[in-house]
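Bug report (template v2)

What were you trying to do?
Predict the complex of my protein with S-adenosyl-L-homocysteine.

What happened?
Run completed; filing so the output is reviewed.

Input:
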Amino acid sequence: MGPVRVLELYSGIGGMHQALRESCISAEVVAAVDVNTVANEVYKHNFPSTPLWAKTIEGITLAELNRLSFDMILMSPPCQPFTRIGLQGDVSDPRTNSFLYILDILPRGKLVETLKKCGFKYQEFLLSPTYILENFPDQEPKASVKHRVAAGLEKESSFTSPEEEHIEPNSGSDAGSGQCSQKEAFVFKLETAKEMERKRNQDSDLSIQMLKDFLEEDGEEMSQYFLPPKALLRYAFLLDIVTPSCRRSTCFTKGYGHYVEGTGSVLQTAEDVQLESVFKSIEMLSEEEKLMKLSTLKLRYFTPREIENLHGFSPEFGFPDKITMKQRYRLLGNSLNVHVVAKLISLLTG
Ligand code: SAH
């Protein structure tokens, strides 16, 4: 049999293509489809020989698809219609239309029946970037198989853009732990004892790599990533602050580096400074004193390259020079964890 012919829908910057390569199966992406012109430039830059269709998925005809005679579809359609903090429009959200179109033109009901008759099984996975928790309807193989990947990137509640959210303390806590009860007392920095303990536990899990393994060398260009005073004063209490020796971060979403709240962790580069000593009783201080204290933490954003590293993109992956910082964060925030998907592709084809 020749290489598996893969159709990559919603291809973005090519996270799926990266994962396909990492999975080491013999495969060829016969077409990648996305409407986003900026994403497409990045895709072309990294996968120049892959046919890229810059069009909407609804605009593809069944005949065009059939001509590709593909064996596998890899896709991560927009998740915003389904996220907890989003509008929860589900299939009534227009952003779901293209996916419904795909389901419609591929005779799904028939397809599943045929596959089942031929002895195929289908599997559903409940995913977190820290673990792949396997959840099989037919209980086979057993649930609770955990696969650990890279650094502990927590799934965050917020996949919606902060423009769509109203700001609430702790709305950036992760989906797994549920809504934080309003009654729980904050220890400092709007964090409850329970949340702090959860983070401490994750940071002491030696099986997960430290963030320092994913960081770029310190250099002059780093200065552009430090949080400006205005952001520090305004958002310090809402930030998820991590140090290079942490083994967790929150999920980096598309507003990162621009909207501060709930979009991803920031890095405390002054490792010897105790967070508690900075935040205890800080409310009592003048703005100027607050700023002085907060500045001792030397907080910076993760760079796009560091987020690529955390997402498992290979060192060869890159952006064309003209793609701006804001665009890079946006595109990366929409992408996926390459290691997790590579593992899934191996399971699927193994
Ligand atoms: N897996 C991709 C990103 C998926 S995010 C990556 O690794 O980067 C969803 C992508 O779907 C976005 O790039 C968006 O531009 C694209 N998209 C959304 N609706 C679309 C439609 N109707 N037709 C084509 N592309 C669409």
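What did the reviewer find?
The chain has twelve helices and 13 strands. The two ends are 15 Å apart (CA to CA).
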